[in-house]
Amino acid sequence: MDKQGWQLKPLVNIMLFVIMLALPGASWAEVVLKYNMNASSSWMPYYIPNSPQRPGILGEILPQIIALADLKAEKHNYPPKRTNQALETGLLDFDIVSPSWFPHGDMGELFVQSKAIIDIQESIIVLPKNTSKWSDIDKIKGQKIGTIRGYLYHDDHLYTRVDFLSERELVRALHKQRIEVAISGDLPALYWAKQLNLDISLAAIHSKGVLVMRLRKEHQHLMPKIDAAIDTLTADGTVQRIIDKYTNQEVFKLNAQ
Known about the structure:
This protein is α/β, with parallel strands linked by helices and 257 residues long. 35% of the residues lie in helices and 22% in strands. The protein has helices spanning 3-22, 57-68, 80-89, 167-175, 186-196, 223-235, 238-247, 250-253; strands spanning 32-36, 72-76, 94-97, 111-113, 118-126, 144-148, 160-164, 182-185, 201-216. The strands form 2 sheets. Strands 1, 2, 3, 4, 5, 8 and 9 form a 7-stranded mixed β-sheet that branches. It has a two-stranded parallel sheet with strand order 6-7. α2 (57-68) packs across α6 (223-235).
């Protein structure tokens, strides 16, 4: 090899090393995905904070998806508004959301979504005496509607949001007559009504869909493994067993639509 060839060899080696570092499967460049699942800290029974023995439906399913997909992940606890900001800027890599919470189901060009993990439904929640009055979803247009600070609603341009910190506070606000109507996931609303011993009813359905993983697009090469893990946990009955563990209670059957 001539002198010029020897001079080029170190440069070629450096370039090859950089390329190998960039490869998705390179162990020394292994990605640690940062995520949040905390929601409002009152998103029972989907996620129950500070409860390692009973962490909630997603608190049990998500670690199994991560393990089966052979991913490295790091959990953070952010409030909803900060979670959305962190996902936009790349401080977080994924969370769990429903396309039904977004206008036209569009999560934006920064993200890809997984297969469905579980079903979810949101309803108008009211005091029992007001159920029939709010049986038509169109009645919320132009009204003041109780919502959760930082939560996503596909149609919040149609009404005036009155934000509260959590589903728990929504139920309390109804009974204190601070609001007449609110939007909540069915299961969290029924859970907190039972815990607070305050009667509520589910009126019109506001959104109905599935929960998926919203993943930043730069990690989309991981999605086939994530989807395969979801398929496995669904097919072998794990997902349904976990759902049943948390929802086979009278509180979740009451007023269920």
